[in-house]
Recover the amino acids of this structure.
């Protein structure tokens, strides 16, 4: 009898379990909204993370100027005045507001496979260096850091998609973001964003590593959207170097070139200096972000010295070593610059360029440039 | 009777052929794959760089003549780990003492010895590779070494130089000659230095082959730098012995070598230190992680392994014991202290790259066995680190990791 009671009790528990198991499972959400309209109740994340030259940014999150849908969109005016001397600016949508990873506030967006948004420029031609998902670090870091760009906006609305299929979206406190530079927008930029949302689209498939098409520019002109890599990796006597990516002093092609002033003051005591162009900025191999440049057979660049006779120890590609090291390196040098523009080529045949974080680099030293050096670079491209 | 005669002649012929073969040589297989053969058998070099300087001494200490015979203590530990080769950069001053070490290690533990020569790299003011008298001086030094030890069964091969190629770039111990100085183009100057240096090495290699057909001759080289010139100037070396510090991966080293100078490669110096310069504490896990990963790639690139290039012969980890003199070479008091300072930076060893000024490489902490100030039988007590056990286990069962899709 005691056994029977136990059995009945067990059955009474099991039956509702069985019933509930037959009920349809709760539907997983198909979208997660960041912004649709100013006061939409399902908006998430706050555009509170202003970066770089923050005084150059103006935001109107209830602009009624031709929204893509609904009553409002977000207008940004980027002044490109370098108000804080940074040369770039951007905004990250955070949760909670102003959370740079010090607070626990991330959403679990597992199941979402893409983020979509609409954007347009006031005139067309405005260049956003990158749109991002995740990337917040700190004590509570985001589980992803994904970016697309550079993106040249059109004067009419266009939808953009960030592929998130296969990514770990289990913790995101930085839902969305953009950043751009004064070099890319010398006259500033006014642009609009609308309808930002994560979506669960089963048709999205994880992206394989894309082999970049040639030519692949490191530098064409100051405002060229097709430039890749950032001249952020200052080395050695970095205080001796001054970089101007918008010099109009007799560019080889287009309207600008790069001007480098090496003072030779041995500010850090290294007796040499150099700059790496990295992806993203300041990546010394700690971020998995190499380009696949396997299609390249060479990299070419044009260079000239202000006086002629300046000596560059090497022009180099690849060679960054870290957790995510470049797959190879190649260099040419030492070279003595002419006063006239001269083309230099690094032969890449036989090299493994499947993963390149350090897209370009130069190094020079005081021993061979006792008076310092001023030189110019232009049209740096993989071919 | 006829069968017995046939058997006799067959044995005689086999013995004669065996006798005609070098003790150690490199066998070229299909598709530019290479295998080291020692005493008739394929051999993977499972080696370690060996310089057992005791606490309180520096590199000038003649450990070869140490009455406490550190190599006997170390040889036993090495044998238990699976090490079959030691690499020494240059023999000690007493040939008889050197001979005894080679014999002891081989007879007692089956451990072979790779002997090398610096080729005057540390000469002051600079190694003048363009100077005939300088060349003759070091050629003689090398040939004297070969003559003295070539008949020792424990000798495996010879390594000429170490990272001397960097001097051709002008970065370390720069040198020149009148002829080079006349050339205005610095790229051509660099090419001239490489050609002079590699031709000098090639000349010595040819002389060694005449004297000693029984052992391969390696070109010591830092990374693969300059080897495109060695292709023209040093065709007579049998292999390259590279010094590589690339963290967890050798990258495309093996493939790249094949494309520039198609010779087999011995990783003659590689490894990781066991001190976290960021957290400022010993980290044996970090060292073990890097060493296991490096050995995995060496094995992936041995002959007949479809995963790799097939041109690797093995390697020699840097190094067997810590060396307490290295951080501050000029201060004898510092030789008694296990310094935690770092002199250089290498981002490939990324765990502690956030150390001050990114200096994360701790020269005194590369040993896979640590040294204690406490002594045992007159020697600093050896304390194997985690890497000792991890590499030992890997060698017992060197299976490659399954390839992960989409991961580097």
């Amino acid at each position: 009898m005691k056994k029977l009671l136990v059995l009945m009790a067990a059955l009474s528990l099991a039956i509702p379990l069985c019933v509930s198991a037959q009920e349809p499972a709760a539907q997983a959400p198909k979208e997660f909204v960041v912004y649709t309209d100013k006061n939409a109740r399902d908006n998430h994340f706050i555009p509170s993370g202003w970066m770089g030259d923050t005084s150059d940014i103006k935001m109107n999150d209830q602009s009624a100027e031709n929204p893509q849908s609904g009553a409002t969109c977000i207008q940004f005016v980027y002044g490109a005045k370098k108000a804080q001397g940074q040369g770039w600016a951007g905004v990250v949508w955070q949760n909670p507001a102003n959370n740079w990873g010090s607070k626990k506030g991330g959403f679990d967006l597992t199941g979402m496979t893409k983020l979509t948004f609409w954007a347009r420029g006031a005139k067309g031609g405005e260049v956003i260096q990158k749109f991002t998902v995740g990337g917040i670090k700190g004590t509570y870091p985001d589980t992803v850091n994904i970016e697309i760009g550079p993106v040249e906006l059109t004067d009419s609305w266009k939808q953009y998609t960030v592929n998130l299929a296969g990514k770990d979206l289990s913790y995101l406190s930085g839902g969305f973001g953009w950043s751009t530079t004064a070099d890319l927008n010398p006259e500033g930029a006014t642009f609009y964003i609308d309808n930002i949302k994560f979506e669960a689209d089963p048709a999205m498939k994880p992206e394989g590593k894309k082999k970049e098409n040639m030519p692949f520019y490191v530098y064409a002109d100051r405002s060229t959207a097709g430039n890749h890599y950032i001249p952020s990796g200052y080395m050695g006597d970095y205080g001796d170097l001054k970089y101007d990516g918008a010099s109009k002093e007799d560019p080889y092609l287009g309207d600008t070139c790069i001007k480098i002033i090496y003072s030779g003051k041995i500010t850090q005591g290294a007796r040499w200096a150099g700059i790496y162009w990295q992806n993203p900025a300041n990546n010394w191999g700690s971020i998995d972000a190499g380009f696949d440049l396997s299609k390249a057979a060479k990299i070419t660049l044009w260079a000239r010295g202000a006086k002629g006779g300046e000596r560059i120890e090497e022009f180099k590609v690849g060679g960054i070593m870290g957790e995510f090291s470049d797959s190879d390196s190649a260099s040419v040098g030492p070279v003595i610059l002419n006063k006239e523009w001269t083309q230099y080529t690094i032969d890449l045949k036989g090299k493994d360029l499947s993963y390149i974080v350090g897209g370009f680099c130069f190094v020079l030293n005081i021993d061979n440039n006792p008076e310092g050096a001023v030189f110019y670079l232009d049209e740096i491209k993989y071919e | 009777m006829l069968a017995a005669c046939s058997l006799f002649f067959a044995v005689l012929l086999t013995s004669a052929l065996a006798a005609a073969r070098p003790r150690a040589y490199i066998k070229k297989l299909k598709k530019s794959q290479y295998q080291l053969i020692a005493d008739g058998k394929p051999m993977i070099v499972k080696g370690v760089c060996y310089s057992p300087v005791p606490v309180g001494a520096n590199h000038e200490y003649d450990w070869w003549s140490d009455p406490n015979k550190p190599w006997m203590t170390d040889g036993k530990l090495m044998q238990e780990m699976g090490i079959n080769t030691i690499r020494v950069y240059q023999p000690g001053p007493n040939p008889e003492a050197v001979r005894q070490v080679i014999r002891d290690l081989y007879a007692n533990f089956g451990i072979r010895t790779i002997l090398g020569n610096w080729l005057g790299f540390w000469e002051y003011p600079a190694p003048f590779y363009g100077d005939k008298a300088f060349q003759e001086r070091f050629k003689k030094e090398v040939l004297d070494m070969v003559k003295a030890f070539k008949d020792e069964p424990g000798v495996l091969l010879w390594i000429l130089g170490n990272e001397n190629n960097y001097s051709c770039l002008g970065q370390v111990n720069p040198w020149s000659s009148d002829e080079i100085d006349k050339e205005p183009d610095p790229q051509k100057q660099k090419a001239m230095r490489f050609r002079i240096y590699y031709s000098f090495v090639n000349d010595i290699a040819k002389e060694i082959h005449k004297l000693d057909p029984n052992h391969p001759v390696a070109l010591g080289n830092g990374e693969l730098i300059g080897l495109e010139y060695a292709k023209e100037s040093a065709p007579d070396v049998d292999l390259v012995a590279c010094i590589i510090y690339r963290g967890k991966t050798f990258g495309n080293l093996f493939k790249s070598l094949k494309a520039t100078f198609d010779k087999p490669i011995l990783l003659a110096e590689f490894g990781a230190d066991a001190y976290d310069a960021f957290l400022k504490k010993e980290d044996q896990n970090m060292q073990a992680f890097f060493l296991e990963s490096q050995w995995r790639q060496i094995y992936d690139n041995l002959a007949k392994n479809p995963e790799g290039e097939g041109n690797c012969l093995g390697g020699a980890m840097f190094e067997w014991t810590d060396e307490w003199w290295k951080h501050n070479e000029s201060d004898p008091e510092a030789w008694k202290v296990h310094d935690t300072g770092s002199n250089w930076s290498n981002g490939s060893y990324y765990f502690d790259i956030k150390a001050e000024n990114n200096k994360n490489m701790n020269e005194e902490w590369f040993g896979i066995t640590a040294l204690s100030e406490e002594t045992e039988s007159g020697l600093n007590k050896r304390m194997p680190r985690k890497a000792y056990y991890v590499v030992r286990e890997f060698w017992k069962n060197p299976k490659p990791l399954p390839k992960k899709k989409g991961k580097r």
The radius of gyration of chain A is 26 Å. The first strand of chain A starts at residue 31 and ends at 35.
